[in-house]
Amino acid sequence: MGEEVNTQSPGHIAASNNHLLELFATFDYRDKTEWMSRNWHISLVIITIYLGVIFLGQGLMRGRTPFNLNKALTFWNFALALFSILATIRTLPELIAILVQPNGFHHSVCSPCEDVSPTSAFWAWAFVLSKVLELGDTAFIVLRKSPLLFLHWYHHCTVLLYSFYSYASYVSAARWFVVMNYLVHSLMYSYYLLKSLKFRVPRPIAMFITCLQLSQMVVGLSVNFYAYTTKMNGDACDISYHHLNMGLVMYASYFVLFIHFFMQAYLGRKSAKGKLDAAAALSENNNTERVTTRSRGAAKKDN
User: Fold this and answer.
1) Under DSSP, is residue 101 helix (H, G, I), strand (E, B) or coil?
2) How far apart are CA 85 and CA 182, in angstroms?
3) What pLDDT score does 113 carry?
4) Which of 152, 155, 156, 243 is the catalytic position?
5) Ordered DSSP codes for 102-121
6) For an engineered disulfide with 290, which of 20, 40, 87, 298 has Cβ 3.0 to 4.6 Å away?
7) Is 12 designated active site?
8) Alpha-carbon Rg of the chain, whole angstroms?
9) How would you classify this enzyme at the top EC level (predicted)?
10) How far apart are CA 281 and CA 288, in angstroms?
11) 3-state DSSP call for residue 234?
């Protein structure tokens, strides 16, 4: 009878795992980049609909009682935290393996991405798709009537646009952008999950995640500057000036906006209204990035 219970032998489990691994081993990014090169403009349609819905939603919510979405918010944060953690585990080792090689940083920035493993290629595609899913962050802000910061919707729109446009060219520096974003989001959504579960997370943790986000912007700018100077010196680097200019503008704008938020929320040099806004951000951080990282919406949910 004991043997009947043990229906899944180690060999059976290994076979099941092999089927899962085959999904990654057979993943071909080429058809995805070809599709994206023809359809990246869909991101503009998505962004237009997104902006229309959120601002219309804010208008409809005026005079209405905020929705109690704590259970849905907890599930949302759990799902995105789990997704980001798994993605980090699957993509970070490959970046590290490149960096420890001779001239590793140069290769990580400028070598073509065609030689990445199928696993990393799969998670790069998942990264692009996740930028559409993460627009749902704003729904919690609007329906709960939390403050909607400019940085929140600006970040969502620009990351979505840049991800679609860059994936079409499979730019070399994308490995940095993808891994950094996954790593930061794994911590960020885990933090939001704890807050939505009513855990008392020390304020320095929120401050640390904000600093981590700022560090992400610094690294993003550094990677783009390195690629830019490499090309200016006449050396090969598999990324166009057009993509570099877009990346520099995007990361520079994020850095300025995050610095502004950090000073307002943590350094105390602000007006009375600013202090109230920062306090609201810290109390609303169950679901918003403005509390800790990207200040994305004054109450929830980044390159």
Assistant:
1) coil
2) 7
3) 75
4) 155
5) TTHHHHHHHS-GGGS-HHHH
6) 298
7) no
8) 21
9) transferase
10) 8
11) coil
From first CA to last CA, the distance across the chain in angstroms is 54
- The tens-digit pLDDT sequence of the chain (303 residues) is 444 444 343 333 333 444 444 555 567 778 888 899 999 999 999 999 999 999 999 999 998 999 999 999 999 999 999 999 999 999 999 999 999 999 999 999 998 876 677 888 899 999 999 999 999 999 999 999 998 999 899 999 999 999 999 998 888 888 999 999 999 999 999 999 999 998 888 888 988 998 999 999 999 999 999 999 999 999 999 899 999 999 999 999 999 998 988 888 787 654 434 443 443 343 344 444 333 333 334 334 444
Instruction: List, in sequence order, every residue forming a beta bridge with 300; answer none if it has no partner.
Output: 287
DSSP 131-188: HHHTTHHHHHHHHTT----HHHHHHHHHHHHHHHHHHTTT-TTHHHHHHHHHHHHHHH
How many Cβ atoms are within 10 Å of 238's Cβ, its own excluded?
Answer: 18
Q: 39 phi and psi, to 5 degrees?
A: -130, 15
Q: Please choose, from the candidates 162, 195, 199, 194, the residue with its C-alpha nearest in 3D space to the C-alpha of residue 181.
A: 162
Length of the chain in terms of residues written: 303
pTM of structure: 0.80
Instruction: Return d(Cα 46, Cα 135) in angstroms, integer.
Output: 10
CB 287 within 8 A of CB 73: yes
What CA–CA distance (Å, rounded) separates 208 from 212? 6
- The structure tokens listed for 74 are 């907890």
